[in-house]
Amino acid sequence: MKIVVCVKRVPDTALKVKIGSDRKSIEKGDVEYIVSPYDEIAVEHAIRFKEKTPGTEVVVVTLGPADSEKNMRTCLAMGADRGILLQSNADTMDSFNVAKALSDAISQEKPDLVLFGIKATDTDSSQVGAIVSMLLGIPFLSTVVSFSLENGKIKADSEVESGHLVLQSTIPCALSIQKSNVDPRICSLINIRKAKQKELKIVPVDIPNDHFEIEKMELPAERTGGKIVGHGPDAVKELLRLLHEEAKVI
Amino acid sequence: MKSGFLLSQKDLLQSVEKLSLKGSAGFLLGPTPSGTMFTREQFTEEQKEVGKIATDFANSKIRPNDEKIEHKAKEEDGTPTIIKLVKEAGELGLLGIDLPEEYGGLNMDFTTMMCTLENLAINGSYAATHIAHLGIGTLPILFFGNEEQKKKYLPKLATGEWISCYALTEPGSGSDALSGKTKAVLEGDYYILNGTKQYITNGSWADLAIVFARLDNQYTGFIVELNQPGISRGAEEKKMGIKGSSTVSLIFENAKVPKENLLGKVGDAATIALNILNLGRLELGFATLGAAKDVAKYTIEYGKQRKQFARPVIEFDMQMAKLADMVSRIFSLDALIYRTVSGIDAGLKSKGGHSASDVDVIRNYAIEASICKVEGSEMLAQVAGDSVKMMGGYGYCEEYRSEKAVRDCFINMIFEGTNDINRLVIFDFLVKGIYNQEIPFRDFMEMVESSLEKKNLAYPIEDSILSKEKHKVYAAKCLTAWMIQQCIIQHGKDIKNQQQVMKNISDMVIQIYAADSSLSRAHYLLHDKKHAGLVSSLVRLIVSQSTSAIQNLGSQVFASLWDTPSQKKQEEWNQLCSWAEYKENIFALKQEIAKATLEEGLFI
Ligand SMILES: Cc1cc2nc3c(=O)[nH]c(=O)nc-3n(C[C@H](O)[C@H](O)[C@H](O)COP(=O)(O)OP(=O)(O)OC[C@H]3O[C@@H](n4cnc5c(N)ncnc54)[C@H](O)[C@@H]3O)c2cc1C
Fold first, then answer.
1. What is the mean pLDDT of residues B118-124?
2. What is the mean pLDDT of chain B?
3. Peptide bond into B171 cis (omega under 30)
4. End-to-end Cα separation, chain B, in angstroms
5. Mean pLDDT, to the nearest integer, of B366-377?
6. Which residues line ligand 1 (CB under 6 A)?
7. CB atoms < 10 A from the CB of B189, how many?
8. Whose C-alpha lies nearest to ligand 1, atom 7?
9. CATH of domain B40-163
10. pLDDT digits over B223-255, tens only?
11. Which terminus in chain A has less CB density within 10 A, N or C?
């Protein structure tokens, strides 16, 4: 089996983002970049699959600037075998452009499985996985929380809002990974050291101009604090009244 | 980044620049040239990476187990949860960072290792357990063990397969640490040990101990495997804090220790114990730094949520002032502690490594290590205490973390030498350094005296960043050195009976190290144009408070030295005080610091 995991670097989610002076992008000054948390979970799934299934190779692919190497090394330290860094300084938001570059690289790898995080935590757009699958012409299983190989097919559990699906697909196929009880491992220092020796292929890519542009970027309005109306069953009546009369949601 | 020197002072400055990098309180005898001090802002990528592993481990493994650790809970297989965690840390490599690769370590420097201690210290019991193992429990073997001993024990300790401890204290031997009565007698191929060690961290679950015992009346170190007949462990002490750690007696009744387990040479206990304690004190300082940052963040989080008089309590002026005090003390401990450890690393690197012949590097940092311990533990005590106060009744209840923080922090002022003992160490080493001419105290004093004669104190470096503050701290150094000189002249050998004087002098030295290191750290940040407003407020607050504390401490000493001081002394003292005088509107500074902290959460 060969698994490709697509990962993206995003601003550290613990960081308080500030909007830049152009009002169209974030201030980059001291921003630390991390592997998008859902992508990291996807890597974890791939590594666990590999640990159970000898002979599996895990390849991580990213599109980003040169210093994405650091984030690729994190994935390699987690246990991925090698990495491909599609290097571009284009700060693209256009999911199609990203997906095109990724699918060109992935198609050369001929993987059995392609994993994505369900979304990148910077743009939250959840598009790239689906477009890559379409360009590769393979089935796309979304919001997957676990999967296994059974009789030459992929069996996947998918969490959807209204319930739980068990899916089955031919190989090759693509999965987008949703958060579950699978937490990414903390890399050991030895593995971080070993990861420095692992293969990381750097391939410069040209990204065409975006088909659209960001006109304005704003932070969400400050939340205006909650209200505790009381404790226990006695409070229910007042809560109902407020929801009905003030918030007008019921 | 280095600034130009004024020629007249060049020689003195150069010797000071070298000195401030060698410990021995060299920082006291001149300005610290900009760009010569390491701060966390210069972490390498590797140091950041390793630090992050520790943070991830702390947040995802230690914090969720706070409750189990506190109650000494056990896992299904009977292993105490805390020990399971130490072993997991070992699997990640966190116990062998500073050990050579040939013994299962990663061969990184102490700076990297200690930065993990900072990040792991969000639980006091865990920190004590981890540090007793990898610090005082392991380093004696690294520095004083022979090749066989290192090969035999270090790999097991690096992975956490074995847990270690350090057994120096006895019922009758605490602060007087080298007066222990435990006895060792050579019989054939074994030393036979008899005696009791008390208050031993990790005692109940350790596999190995560094034990000190009297051999032919010479105090000597031994490596002792604990799971054998003749060794028993006392009941757990019921403590005020760090309740999740183990503190027991180790009782030796004709315990057999193989001849080859003698550590170092016969009679080496003092060298081993005291040098390793220097590293232990430094490690403890790092733990207090991490704990204080954790408490500060928690307090802010709470204070933003809790509303009284229709406002978040943290926004009230008095609460903001306490928050600013937290941040400024954390900022300066951060600066002085990384400065210290990186100095030791540089010294060890130039010497080539970790062996008994290299420990004089560590010995040279005795003063700085004691400062890290005293200032760290007292800073944390203030931060934790203020946190409880800032949370009101909630802060006093177990359900909120600050109550535990207060109980847990107290021990840091007691173990690894009480803070009183550490203050004596600071003074003692300083005076020894002066007598033995390890530091150019006389040259410096000549400069101070001639400045006093000329009634003009020139600042010997041209520097555009924070020049006023640097000048003031420099003046405070002159004032402190002058005061030390007066004490030596007035008291001579009797100074050892003047503990209150010694305490004040040590406190002045601590204040200087804190202010000086903060200035150097701020210099970098301002030079790189980072958070200029906040950094400048911080450093102004720190310099303002430390120069006034130094004057106050000095005035007390001054009043004790002479019933009626000569006019000359009085004039000199007044002159020094006026040079060091730096008054700022600290209320406004605290407001600014707190505001910026609430917005950006920097430096904590
Ligand atoms: C939880 C815990 C864990 C510990 N872990 C370890 C461990 O792992 N290994 C180990 O070997 N020890 C350990 N200790 C022991 C610890 O290091 C000692 O308790 C400490 O050094 C103080 O000694 P003491 O308790 O005997 O106090 P004492 O020496 O009796 O001191 C009492 C008071 O007298 C003061 N005093 C003493 N001498 C002087 C002096 N010359 N001048 C001025 N004042 C003085 C002290 O500052 C103190 O205020 C631990 C202790 C505790 C409580």
1. 98
2. 94
3. no
4. 27
5. 98
6. B 132, 165-169, 174-175, 199-201, 239, 247, 411, 414-415, 417-418, 420-421, 499
7. 9
8. B200
9. 1.10.540.10
10. 999 999 999 999 999 999 999 999 999 999 999
11. C
CA distance B323 to B593: 8
Residues of chain B contacting A193 with CB distance shorter than 8 Å:
106
Q: Is the pLDDT of residue A136 over 60?
A: yes
Tell me the one-letter amino acid at A71.
N
Most distant pair of Cα atoms in chain B: their distance: 78
**Residue-wise pLDDT tens digits, B176-215:** 999 999 999 999 999 999 999 999 999 999 999 999 999 9
Active site residue B236: no
Is the peptide bond prior to A65 cis by the omega test (within 30 degrees of 0)? no
Name the pLDDT band for B10 (thresholds 50, 70, 90).
Answer: low
For the record, the structure tokens of B341 come out as: 């450890």
The yes or no reply on domain B9-30+421-600 and CATH 3.30.230.10 is: no
All structural domains of chain A with their residue ranges: 2-204
Answer yes or no: are the C-beta atoms of B475 and B576 closer than 8 Å: yes
Sequence-distant (6+) residues with CB within 8 A of A41 are A117, A177, A179, A180, A182, A183, A184
What is the C-alpha to C-alpha distance for residues B500 and A233, in angstroms, rounded to an integer?
62
Whether residue B128 contacts residue B245, with contact meaning beta carbons closer than 8 Å, is answered with yes
Domain limits of chain B?
9-30+421-600, 40-163, 166-263
Interchain pair B93, A189: CB under 8 A: yes
The angle formed by the CA atoms of residues B426, B9 and B513, to the nearest 5 degrees, is 25
Ligand 1 atom 32: the closest Cα is on which residue? B175
Query: A interface mutation test: which of B40, B92, B597 has the most A CBs within 10 A?
Result: B92
Q: How many CB atoms lie within 10 A of CB B356?
A: 16
Ligand 1 atom closest to Cα of B167? Answer: 11
pTM score: 0.92
Q: Which chain A residues touch B if contact means CB-CB below 8 Å? A: 16, 30, 70, 183, 186-190, 192-193, 225
**Looking at domain B166-263, does it have CATH number 2.40.110.10?**
yes
Burial degree of A101 (CB within 10 A; 0-12, 13-18, 19+): buried
Say what the ipTM of the complex is. Answer: 0.81
Residue that is written with structure tokens 């030390």 in the block: B484
C-beta of residue B146 within 8 angstroms of C-beta of residue B85? no
- Tokens 């690197």 belong to which residue? B349
Q: What is the pLDDT of residues B455-483, one digit of tens each?
A: 999 988 888 899 999 999 999 999 999 99
Residue A52 has pLDDT above 50, yes or no: yes
The pLDDT, as a whole number, for residue B17 is 56
Give contacts of B91 with chain A, Cβ < 8 Å.
188
A186 with B601: Cβ contact below 8 A = no
CB B241 within 8 A of CB B146: no
Of the candidates B436, B518, B434, the one whose C-alpha atom is nearest the C-alpha of residue B480 is B434
Q: Which entry of B416, B438, B469, B592 is annotated as an active-site residue?
A: B416
User: One fold for both B9-30+421-600 and B40-163?
Assistant: no
Of the candidates B477, B478, B484, the one whose C-alpha atom is nearest the C-alpha of residue B451 is B478
